[in-house]
Amino acid sequence: MPRGTKLAAGxxxxxxxxxxxxxxxxxxxxxxxxxxxxxxxxxxxxxVLAGYCGQISxxxxxxFGTGAYTSTILVKTVGLTPWGGMLAGAVLAxxxxxxxxxxxxxxxxxxxxxxxxxxxxxxxxxMINWDWAGxxxxxxxxxxxxxxxxxxxxxxxQIYYYIALGLLLLxxxxxxxxxxxxxxxxxxAIREDQDAAASLGIPVARYxxxxxxxxxxxxxxxxxxxxxxxxxxxxxxxxxLSLSILICLVAVLGGVGTLWGPLVGAAIxxxxxxxxxxxxxxxxxxxxxxxxxxxxxxISVIQPGGIMALAQRGRRRTG
Amino acid sequence: xxxxxxxxxxxxxxxxxxxxxxxxxxxxxxxxxTANKDISFHVAPGELVGIIGPxxxxxxxxxxxxxxxxxxxxxxxxxxxxxxxxxRPDEISRLGVGRTFQKLxxxxxxxxxxxxxxxxxxxxTHPAEARTHALEALEQVGxxxxxxxxARVLSTGQRKRLxxxxxxxxxxxxxxxxxxxxxVDQRSIPGLVELVRSLNATGVALxxxxxxxxxxxGISQRVVALHxxxxxxxxxxxxVMNDHRVIEAYLGRAYAS
Amino acid sequence: xxxxVLLQGIVSGLLMGLVYALxxxxxxLIFGLMEIVNFAHGEFLMLAxxxxxxxxxxxxxxxIVSLPLxxxxxxxxxxxxxxxxxxxxxxxxxxxxxxxxxxxAIFLRxxxxxxxxxxxxxxxxxxxxxxxxxxxxxxxxxxLAASVGALLAFVFLHWFISRTxxxxxxxxxxxxxxxxxxxxxxxxxxxxxxxxxGAACVGVAGALLTIFFYVFPDVGSSFALLAxxxxxxxxxxxxxxxxVAGVVVGLIETLSGLLIAPALKYVAVFLIYLLVxxxxxxxxxxxx
Lengths: 319, 257, 288
Known about the structure:
Chain A is mainly α. Chain A has a domain at 26-240. Chain A has 14 helices and 2 strands, in the order αααααβααααβααααα. Chain A has a two-stranded antiparallel sheet. The longest helix of chain A is centred in the last third of the chain and has 27 residues, at 204-230. The radius of gyration of chain A is 20 Å and the shape is globular. By secondary structure, chain B is α/β, with parallel strands linked by helices. Chain B folds into 2 domains: 1-96 and 172-257, Rossmann fold, CATH 3.40.50; 104-171. In chain B, 32% of the residues lie in helices and 23% in strands. Chain C is built from 11 helices and 2 strands, in the order ααααββααααααα. In chain C, strands 1-2 form a two-stranded antiparallel sheet. In chain C, a hairpin with a 2-residue loop joins β1 and β2 (137-140).
């Protein structure tokens, strides 16, 4: 597609997205869209580390939870506006990611993946047992009655839609900037062959940490958003292994290492999850995971590049 | 067989006595196996040194030690008088040392020019500039027409050129080539040989590991022969070829001219 | 904290450690063969446990009696997994390999949940029950049987790998696939065999555990994580190493539960794991 057409199509899509909640005023479709944006954003953030830099983290929920817990605790203890808490959460997540990365990046491949699972489990277990931070019972975000913008709570739920969309666009913009820059090339070189990358002058550990930090910070923003949207957090909802898996799955299905892959993946998986929940009732929870599991297996065997890769193959064939 | 062209003086180098690479007594053990034993030799700026030795002589291990992928158990390596012995590979690269690998390592999911840009980014942060330098390097190795092809569709010979271009794009003063003609079809060899010569002509010092005797003897100004991890001969190609220790080490392998 | 309680903890940790070692051995074997981590290993264990449970619930077969059946069933599952899934991702990029078995894990776990619900099941009144007293220490007979069984299976595995022709062929394939096939060893068959044996190990462990452990769809995950840690500690691909590593993990788990807090015992295990791989990425005995 020539560049002008791409730009035009993009603008149309953006306008449609912006107009969506005005056209479809029912809460349910809006909520689905918000969840699509949120998962797409988390998967895009994960993609920076795993897709572009090739470090498969299976414990990314840790950063989501860091964002959620930081802003919530700051609201409850010192009354800091969640916007500030969001920033604090991102900073904390970046710091945490560097601490985690230092030992864990010494490992490669499967060893690295397992270590990230271990880290995720450790942190979740610690949170469950940390009573001051709510422990297993979780934390409620105090309802704000002042209506102030600083409170990051809106009776008009449409605003959450736009914030979520904004976060997604931010993540996409960051990814896009990286893609064409030296950093992006270095990330991909590290993914393809770490040793060759080092032999060309790339300080591999430093760049891995950079990818980790970017990814963690963005993910944490999503965590704060979630906390303010749902108004309740606990280790089970913001830090579980299943969330880490879901984030990966969204990116992998759509196309790991591509800009639009995560969004495509979210656009398919979130409605799919909804559909299985609606049509399969009580056991829906297991069935949609069943389908996810099956999908992951199929993708990894047939087209590890996800839907974006399938689309590329199709496009090439039709010339 | 033409005389090797006199190399142009290399880019600025400090350090006194005209030695670019100084390998001193490098020893490397893996468990009970001594891969490199007290290896010493010099490389002058712009020189082309060939390294020969039967399989298992420790050649690739030596490269790994020189480029920081393996720490030596003994000895030291100096670049322009500065010790680089225990530096990381990326640090050594930034000091002006490039290398290729025996087992080729192309960035498979990137295009040819993107591969080389990774090397070029060592000297610039601007993608456009990196792309220009990358295309220049591709010109040098004769791959410019394949710039936008994916790395994985290249033949072995083309991949070797790609790896050279990638290392060249980082503007090294010293380039270590591990197996130039290994696995390459016969017709492509003269082209590769000419390429190596032309690289040397631009003033880059080269250390080349090679199995193909004709190639090595044709391009090297000096040859270092390794056997079972030790240096058994170091000198001009003809002298090395006639050295009885070298002939013994290669007993059974005829040198066909 | 008396010396007695401490000693009790050590014994308990040692016994469980042997079971962890057996579970990990299967994982290590598979990795040694083809450098693939089976992220569905915990789910294999869970299926073994469910198979044992249902054999008891439906046909009143005691776990000890149905053990050979479970082992055989898991062997078949391993082979089927190889031919159905793993075979296609042998040369694939690492991402694909990780997600293939990961997807299988999610699939199996959800299938179990959909079929049998989330309730905890327990075999009641097994043949082996009660406890014995050894010099003041109480040892549960089921736990003792499980560890003795695990140790026996481990010894048998070691004997098979190092003394039988097939086992040696397996080793050869693990060390150098090309050379092995040049010697006439059918690589595909070795891979399938490796998966079968690896799963069978888990089958034995699962049957033994079901004597005294609750069975539920998620039961595999905590064992799996401990198994990964055990394999990494012992060195991926080093089967004898997992014996030592398994015992170490078992001891850390129990002792940290006693000395620090029960809720934090996994944290201790993972922290030790991270420390070890920081110091020695290839594990205590592994080749890299």
